Amino acid sequence: MALSLPRPQRVDVQIAVGSLLSGLALWALGLHTQTDRPLGSGWSLVPLFVLGGLELLRSCMPQTALNLATIAIVLDQFTAGNLVSILMFTDIMYAAVVYGTPAAARRIPLTAGVITVAMTIGFLAWWQEPEAVLIGVATGIIAFGPAATGVLVRNHREAAAAARLRAEQTALLAEMDRVQAVTSERARMARELHDMVANHLSAIAIHSTAALSLDDPKTTRDALSVIRENSVEGLAEMRRLIGILRDSSDDREPAAAPTLDGLDSLLANARTNGLDVVLDDDRATDGAKLPAPVELAAYRIVQESLTNALKHASPGLVTVALAQEPRALTVRVTSPCGDPSGPRAPGSGAGLVGMRERTELLGGTFESGPESSPESSPDGKVWIVSATLPVDPADKEVTE
């Protein structure tokens, strides 16, 4: 099986070709770096071509290129020498630090520094002349200098890559926050639209069915009156919601959210639509106001529960009970559970989902389902909607 070598990069090819041509030009002109060497000037071409070939591997195989280049530059010291050979060795040393493994990037500068110091001390001890320091300086320029430069460049590149990664992560988190905010706002709008309009449309559907199925002028007239009243109120609610969505200016006066003070009006409208409903309000009467989100959630839960009772409950008494606990408000709506005798409107289940979402957003608990209660329903069953809303969102343990 043939061994496939990595393909050199274009810049490596350009460096290798340019270096070889420059080295050959210096050799042709007789410009050498050393004299009185055992090998003649012709031998200086050997390390020149070896180093030129190793330049092709400076990026794809940096450690191998450095090992072979070290042998070639040592060989070059026994020839007349070529300045381009030295420059190519420094470039391969630099590339080994920049493109090599993290371990090699730490090891090569340390090794080059040790060699520089050893060369300086060794030649000082051998020659015992101050000029021996120049050997150490030259070694540092050829070996340690490129390695240190490679460390600086590598650190800069790694810092830039880390900065790019942080920027990408920040952009990703910002996009996730934006998507989450849009999704949350869409869910909030869906709850508001459902809670505001479903009650009126359910009443319209039920009374229009009654008007069409019963051939009684009085029943038809009463049904049309209820239909007109609910259509006008539903249209007003829709216009208010559309106005809020269209006008997003900060100086706009915020629309008033419904509160528990409007329960009497809400129950009166439910009685107009045909429900037999009573209110059992056991809240404290010391005048303390509940937080606006709690009042809005409680109002919407009662509103949706009455809408569901209008659509699905059997004939009987519907009870709305409010209880003020020390740290929470409890809302409980009870309606007869069975087969309704009159016309009914279809349901999608979005109302129960919306009530649960409103409760969970405040850190409360929500329950709904049938229960046995012979005293409250002729059929022996009632449908219970119960929500516990913490007055302070931080008091989640109240609902646990």
Q: If you had to describe this structure to a student in words, what would you say it looks like?
A:
With 400 residues, this protein is α+β, with helices and mostly antiparallel strands. It folds into two domains: 10-170, no CATH class; 260-400, Heat Shock Protein 90. Helix content is 60%, strand content 10%. The protein has ten helices and five strands, in the order ααααααααβαββαββ. The protein has helices at residues 10-28, 45-54, 62-76, 83-99, 102-127, 132-213, 217-246, 263-272, 292-312, 350-361; strands at 276-282, 317-324, 328-336, 365-372, 381-390. A five-stranded mixed β-sheet has the order 1-2-3-5-4, with helices on one face. Strand 2 (317-324) and strand 3 (328-336) form a beta hairpin. The protein is rod-shaped, with a radius of gyration of 43 Å.
Jot down its keywords.
single chain; alpha+beta; 5-stranded mixed β-sheet; 400 residues; Heat Shock Protein 90; 5 strands; 10 helices; rod-shaped
The biggest sheet amounts to: 5 strands, mixed
Strand residues, percent: 5-15%
Poorly predicted spans: 250-254
- How much is the radius of gyration in Å? 43 Å
Beginning-to-end CA distance, first to last residue = 69 Å
Mean pLDDT: 79
User: What is the string of helix and strand elements?
Assistant: HHHHHHHHEHEEHEE
Helix content: 55-70%
Count of alpha and pi helical runs: 10
Q: Structural class of the helix and strand makeup?
A: alpha+beta
